[in-house]
Write a structure and sequence with these properties.
The chain is α/β, with parallel strands linked by helices and 658 residues long. Helices cover 41% and strands 21% of the residues. The strands form 7 sheets. Strands 17, 18, 19, 20, 21, 22, 23, 24 and 25 form a 9-stranded mixed β-sheet that branches. Helix 8 packs parallel to helix 10 (298-315). The longest helix has 30 residues, at 387-416.
Amino acid sequence: MLWNKYTHFLNQWNGVWITAPSITGLVILLRFLGLIQFWEWRTYDAYMRMRPLESPDNRIAIVGINEDDLRAVGQPIFPDGVYAKLLKKLKAMEPKVIGLDIYRDLPVEPGHQELVEVFESTPNLVAIKKVVGDRQRDVIEGPPVLEENNQAGANDLKVDPDKRIRRGYLFVTLQNGQNVTSFASKVVLRYLENFEISPKTLDDNIYQLGKTILEPFEANDGGYVRADAGGYLILLNYRGPSRYFETVSMMDILEDRVPPDWGSDRIILIGAVGESFNDLFSTPYSSSLIRTLEPMSGVEVHANIISQLIGSALDGRSMIKTWVDIYEWIWILFWSGVGAATTWRWRTAGGVSYFSIWKVITIFVAGGVLFASTYIAFLWSWWLPVVPAFLGMTTSAVVITAYIARTAQDIRKTFGRYLTDEVVATLLESPEGLKLGGERRNITILTSDLRGFTATSERLQPEEVVKILNFYLGYMADVITKHNGTIDEFMGDGILVLFGAPITREDDPTRAVACAIDMQLAMEPVNKQMKEWGLTPLEMGIGINTGEVVVGNIGSLKRTKYGIVGSQVNLTYRIESYTTGGQILISGTTLNEVGSIIEINDEKEVMPKGVKQPITIYDVGGLGGKYNLFLIKEEEIYLPLKEEIFLYYIVLDGKNIG
């Protein structure tokens, strides 16, 4: 019993079990190909901008060289004496570390020797050098004095393909395998010496630095796909946008416009911040969906790396963390399952519109939960897949919707074998379509019946009878559909067709007559097939009547039939009963509706059962106008009998044979 329930559950949700893993595999493939990497980066940037700003790190301050400083000095390349004077001023403030993010590999007179002496007498000074690039053109050595004392670090920055900086070097690995400590790392290690903190090796490339564990960036971490992970990189956890660190100009220091203790116990970074220095970079804070924001200078990027490492080592500030691949795959599978399951859940909702509304609402809510959960995780420094999960969820929902639509189309086709497409559309798409009850409507009713087929069928096997009926009814159904008739039901060899329900058209009576003539003409290919089968030709009679009936859904909540009720239906059957093979009889009301384009061969007055007064019925010969349809008139040839034939007959009175 338990196994049966389990199997039933699996079968009921088979669309989800198939769709979710398939879409997950597709999304992972797209991700592996790097097709959604750009959007993952942009989502990461958006989360970075959206999160609340942390308090500024007052342990770090920047002496920014700007265009005003250039004008004050009076030349584009500052003499060494200017930097010597600047460093002396800063040394007097007793900072923990001074970081010089300015290339000084060549002497610039005047004041070069003075600057060298400052370098020699400042053990807490860290300079920069460039180590990545072509050795002849791009590599720049640090000041020789500081290089000798191991006081120069690589200031190379890792720029992503979209020109943004999201990662920072702890050390750079050269082509010869040599590791060069980065400028930021040099400053951090020098600063942490004051707290007796130094890196401890835990495992291969895994270090402990105070309260934090440092692990290198891997090629597929976060939203990256086969990224360059050379050297020792970490994901940058920015403090804030540009100008978030306290910044003063060089002239503010040289002209003593800051308090004497401004730099006490701090890390002082010196670097260019003006636009003319060509040292500006794009970061997650450099753009948004609606506007471009201020870029960040290189010295500010280094300040963020330094702040991240110091904050992690001393305060336990979190590094940006990512999941291993298997966890990310499970995460994508989960959200693909959410998209598939929520859409599948509403597949049996009441009506197409109802299904669409709830599908949109559930996907919208699920998407909100996805973005909210990943954003909250980002606040806790976890970078979880957002775009792949959202893509998996929405794609699964689209696939399930398409599957349901295809299934609905198949149902329509199957349903359409019992009712016309118009009736199916009315029942499935109209909000009122499935309600019980009906409405009064003036329609044209057509009924047809094979003459003498009951007697013929008694001589045949049941399988042959069904074969003949299916062939005959197939031909008739095509003709009826051609003239937009609604087949209400097949009754053995009889057909009940409606013109004017469920959709009313102005020419319903005319199309009914045209359909009847076409049906009689279609008997020629039908009888040709009967002849090939060695069977007796079929003959059909058709009756048409126009009148007011009640049309709609008839039955109960469990079993409903779309049909018509009224005396006009019975009258149509009575009119049809007067026909002979190949004949079409119509009522006076239909004749009046069709008008002068109809050709009448004969008329007669009859008194059908259930009718109080005699009525006139008309024998149709053809229909002019745009239809131009006419019955084939066979010439009657009378021959004299060679001998008398005695007839035996019985009298039929109502349903009684006398």
